[in-house]
Amino acid sequence: MRLGLAGAGRIGAMHAEILRGLDEVDALVIADAQPQRAGEVAGKLGAEHVEDVEALFGAGLDGLVVAAATDAHPELIVRSVEAGIPVLCEKPVAGDVAETVRVLRRVTGAEVPVHVGFQRRFDPGYAAARAAVRSGELGWVHTLRATTLDPAPPPATYIPTSGGLFRDCGVHDFDVIRWVSGQEVAEVYAVGTNRGEEFFRAAGDVDTLGAVLTLADDTIALVSATRYNAAGYDVRLEVMGSRQSLAVGLDERMPLRSVEAGVAWPSGPAYPTFVERFQPAYVAELRAFVASVRGETSEACTVADALEASYVAEACELSRREHRPVRISEVRRD
């Protein structure tokens, strides 16, 4: 199998290393907006590299993984589909809802797989939580609590093009809440604050958020996220039901210290970044994509799924700005 990789930055380089380790991948061809970076990553891994995207699409690919800048995603997704090349694109599909809708229209009915990179769907804990909800062992679910706490902010230059904390970070929680619960979000109420670096405020963004989501069956989901959690990378999901409750991410590396006497758990060390926390999930996600290139089915996030999560993020941002509850129907587009 001959795969292409568009983008050789931090996530792209990680994907390249994983793909080179898969037995099914015979050759990997890398392109980047900075050709030198593509050459450096390819050289370390014994992969091929080309000068630009044009050369990449002319390299006889069986599939394409997109880890380029967000503004390049729509064109790369659509071009891959029109060329009959299966594609996995890191989230987001596009920089805004309108462009995501346009991409969905272009790829609907495509004969090749189109995956969007929401790796939590491939984490064993989240998958087990989904299975527990589906089986009914929890009873009826009344509350979900989702948390994404980054250890430190990204570079200031990233924030103006990130889409904001709800769209860039919270969207992972919104997607996995939908996936685990099997329910759509009906209404949101969201808040955000800035107590850290001024560059968040300057970009119209926040560094900490909280949101209450009401699902279609009246289940309540509580979401919190921040750019400031120096104890470590903390990502968890709690699912509470009428019979039982469970938690994802409650392991020895959870960066949350108990102050109860005689309690030494968790023992750490904490996950420093999302890369270490979700490394196995990224491997599983890319394995699933490779399998889909061979014609097998998978539980990957579709463009339609990604759009639904984006609607929730958009509604939360509107709610934060206008200080009011927002129905998803207010931001949904035909």
TrEMBL record:
Keywords: Oxidoreductase. It comes from the Bacteria. SUPFAM superfamilies: Glyceraldehyde-3-phosphate dehydrogenase-like, C-terminal domain, NAD(P)-binding Rossmann-fold domains. Residues 2-118 form the Gfo/Idh/MocA-like oxidoreductase N-terminal domain. Residues 126-246 form the GFO/IDH/MocA-like oxidoreductase domain. InterPro entries: Gfo/Idh/MocA-like_OxRdtase_N (IPR000683), GFO_IDH_MocA-like_dom (IPR055170), NAD(P)-bd_dom_sf (IPR036291). One of its GO terms (molecular function) is nucleotide binding. Belongs to the Gfo/Idh/MocA family. This is Myo-inositol 2-dehydrogenase / D-chiro-inositol 1-dehydrogenase. It comes from Amycolatopsis arida.
